[in-house]
Structures are given as C-alpha cells and as structure tokens.
Amino acid sequence: MTAKSDIRAEADRLRAAFEARGAEPVEADILQPAGALLDLYGEDIRARAFVTHDPIRGEMMLRPDFTVPLVSRHMAEGRGQARYTYAGEVFRRQEDDPERASEYLQVGYELFNGMDAAEADAEVFATFATLLEPLGLRAEMGDIGLLRAAVAGLNTSDARKAALLHHLWRPRRFKALIERYAGSGVADARRAALLDADEPFDGAKAEIGLRSREEILSRIAALRAERETEPLGAADVAGVDALLAVSGPAPEALSTLQALCDRLPSIIGAVDDLARRMDALDARGVALDRVRFETSHGRTMLEYYDGFVFGFYAEDRPELPPVATGGRYDALTRAMGGGTGIPAVGGAIRPGLILLLGGRP
Fold it and tell me: Which residues are annotated as a binding site?
C-alpha cells in the first residue's frame, strides 16, 4: 500500500508542474453546500456523494470534486481569463464498486479562456499527455457536444429533447427513452392505466412522499402530452445509433463523423469543432493515431462536461479507475454565473495511481 505521505509528495510535484505553466494555486473547503450541487444535478448526486447536515449551514456534502467550488469562486469574483491548479482529497461513494477508494487525492489544472476553445482543449490535453507519457497510458477522448447537437436536431418535441439531454449521462436510460419515443420500448401497463384514468387519484390511499398533488397532476399532464407526440422517425433513431457507435483512432473517427453529417446535419458544427481541436492537438505534437475517440466517452463522468472529454487509462490494469480525466464545462460556468459564463476546460490526475503504476513519471 502506497504511503499517504508519498502520494502527497507526488501531488505537490504535479501541482508545481502546473504552476510552472502559469496556474494559480487555489484551495476549496472540504465541506461544500449541498444546494449548489443538487440544483445542478438533482437528487441523483446523493448516490455518489457523502451528505451530512450542519445545524447552522444546513445540508452539506464532502467535496466530490474541486471544479464546482472553483467555478463558483471564479464567477463570484467576476474574473476573466485564468489558470488554476489545486491538490486535495475528494470523496465519492462507490456502492457499485466497493473495491474502489471512496477518498483519494486529486490534482487539477483548470483553464478559463474565452479566446479559442480548440487551442485551450489542446493545451490541457497535451499538458496531461506530457506529464503522463512515461507511464505508457492509453489515451481516449470524446465530445459530449456531438450528442447534444444530435439531440437538438431530432424531429421531436422540446420536452422530449430536454429529457434526452438530461439523461445523456445515463446511457441505459437514454437508450430506453430513444426506444420509447420511437414506439419500440416495452409498454408499461400501470403507466398506461394511470394516464387513461379520468380521475387518477380515485381509489388512492393516503398521500405520502415529497410531491404535492398539484405536482403529480402536472407530471401526468406532461406524460399525456408526450404520449400524443409523433414517434421518432426511423432515420433519426438510426442516425443517433450510428453516432453512438463511432469508435476508433481519432483520425479515422473524424472521417466517420464527417461522413455521418449527411445523415445528421445538426452535428456539422460540432464535427467542425472536433476537426479544429485535432488540428490544434497535432500542432502540439500529440500522436492522434494513438488516441482513441469514442462518441460515448465520458458519459459516466460527473455531469458538468458539455463538450470535449478525455481520459488516461492503464492498459494492463483494467480494474483501475482512470489515472486522469477532464473536459470542457462551459455550461457550468453559465449556470453558476447567473447566465453569464466563460469557456472553461480542465482535468484532474490521481497521484496515488501514478505511484501504484510505477512511481513518478
């Protein structure tokens, strides 16, 4: 077992490397207000975070990551372009995989830059690739923006699009919704009976739970309206399936996506952005033929990523979590800035895994 003091020393080394690139070191409280995270992600975040209650400050969470408090601070101070680095423990529940640590040290590098998104993405990825190169890790990337653009272009209602966007981060739920909207999902007899009832509360027992009668009736009305919406067309469903299936070396994946634009014209802008990002990565010496691109990459990360996403993995240790992950989170800065944001991208490394895999690179 790696000594915690050694992990901290490695974290200090990584943070110093980011400082040498112009990053300002920042700290964040271990206890964070739960409200901000719940507002952003809903109640699902409770399944992944440690929640407690402070008699004065109310509901709190042990810090699940640094990005949200960092963005909150940056936006509150009204700052523009900036580079940050941090190092400290994060805490995440691992009920699905009890072998994984629920507390570990994380070192991050975050770039707030509204000038050129492709260049900023390339800078962050190339910086991580350089630091981790001696470990021989497998590099992967994706782009949540492609899926968001595809959903926006579907020939269906705004309510359905909103539901699909909400579940981008839950691949099985997203697939089930696509199938349901296409009319090919498994029918739910109890739901159908409820929606067909003239008086849904007739025969109901005592009302329990957090939702009021008005909220329940509003939800039933929304489901009834959704049921009357025309099914998704076969071409739309096939296009989304084809997009999700794109996987391979980055240059080959880009060619596949460019060809797919004929079937999904709504993704043209996102594909052009991806091409510019790859050009910027190539200019920084990144061997793109050794980077794997997957459209679905990053869909099980925390939900603030809305564009470029990446990860570095130990090829011969598939049981380990990624050594580093990151991505673009422009929408998060807008959400925490009251509608006014600044493009931002960053990532985090787990120094404990670096030592586990063979020491300092």
Answer: 65-67, 92, 106, 110, 299, 304-305
